Amino acid sequence: MAESGIEAGVIATLLAQSKITNLTSTRIYPGDQYPQGSAFPVIMVARQSTPSRRLHMGGKLSFIEANVQVRCFAKDTTSVDGYATAKNVADEVASQLNGLKGTSGGYDFRGTYSVGESDVTEFPLSGSDQRVYWVGSDWRILYKDP
């Protein structure tokens, strides 16, 4: 899936941070499904909603507010605690996105803030005990219309 919209700006921001790519390499994808057979950890970035563009008497405002979810996935292995890894990646994502201002991926970020976080455990259907964990964080992002 090709990157488009504010997701591309968020992905560019995360890929520019060595603290994140040291954990995930370039496995940061748009949408809500990582490629089958992906190595872990993986980050998924998906726009959840964009409220209607606000208008004023002079026309359209140039700022947009979007709700974006970032999910950090990791898997248990014999040497890796999947939940601890997913949480560690999510903490690094939060440190990079919280209060973000500036230009990245062609988007002029005017402010970001976290509006929630959730932890999920996916139990395998195959009968193995290799669980996949993900930590999701929801972000409200204010940006200038490109």
Structure commentary:
With 146 residues, the protein is of the alpha+beta class. The chain has a single domain, classed as 2-Layer Sandwich (STM4215-like), CATH 3.30.2000. The chain has three helices and eight strands.
Note the topology.
Elements: H1 6-15, H2 18-24, E1 28-30, E2 42-49, E3 55-56, E4 59-60, E5 63-75, H3 82-97, E6 102-104, E7 107-122, E8 132-144
Parallel strand pairs: 1-2
Antiparallel strand pairs: 2-5, 3-4, 5-8, 6-7, 7-8
How is the largest sheet built, in terms of strand order? 1-2-5-8-7-6
Structural class: alpha+beta
Radius of gyration: 16 Å
Shape label: elongated
Quick recap:
With 146 residues, the chain is of the alpha+beta class. It has helices at 6-15, 18-24, 82-97, and strands spanning 28-30, 42-49, 55-56, 59-60, 63-75, 102-104, 107-122, 132-144.
Please tag this protein with its features:
two-stranded antiparallel sheet, elongated, alpha+beta, 23% helix, 146 residues, 6-stranded mixed β-sheet, STM4215-like, 41% strand
